[in-house]
Write a structure and sequence with these properties.
Layout (H helix, E strand, L loop, with lengths): L4 E4 L3 H5 L6 H6 L3 H4 L7 H15 L15 H14 L4 E5 L7 H16 L3 E5 L3 H7 L2 E6 L2 E7 L4 H12 L2
Helix pairs in contact: 4-5
Length: about 170
Amino acid sequence: GTHKIGYVPEDRKDEGLFLDQPITRNIGVTVWKRLSKVGLIGDGSENRLVARYSDLLGIRAASPRQPAGQLSGGNQQKVSLAKWLAAQCDILIVDEPTVGIDVRTKAAFHELIAKLADEGRAILLISSDLPEVVTLADRIAVMGELTIRGELDNDHDYGAMSQRIIRLIHA
C-alpha cells in the first residue's frame, strides 16, 4: 500500500516553516486538499486543526494567526512537527529534532516521539545527540563517511550502548 511520509528538517527556519506566514498556514499546508471545499478552506477548519495540535504539542502563541517567525525555537519546532502529524503520516523522519530548544521542550519532544512510536508510527530519528538516540531508538544505524558502519539493537543501557556506538564511529 501507499504510505505517507513526513520530514521534520533540522533547519526549521529555512526548510521547515514559512516564517512570514501564520501558524494556521504552516500547519494546514499539508492538509489543504483534505480540508478544502471547492478549493477554499474556511477559517473554522484551519483554526480547529491548529487548536487540536496546539493542545497536543503545547504550542504557545499569541494567536493562531501569529507568524511562525515570531515564535520561540521550541514552538517553531512544534509547528513543524504538527504540520506532519496533521497530515497523518505513517512514517515520520525527524532530523536533529531537539537542536536549539530548551531542556523542558526537549523532554516533551522525547515523550511525544516515544508516544508516536508506541502508536505504531515509524519514526526515523536522525540525531548526533547520543543520549537522545539511546533514549528513543529501538535500532541504531551508525553512519560515517557516507556509509552505514554498523547496526545495533538498543538495550537502552546508556553506558554500554554509547561504548558500542563510539566503537563503530571510530572503526
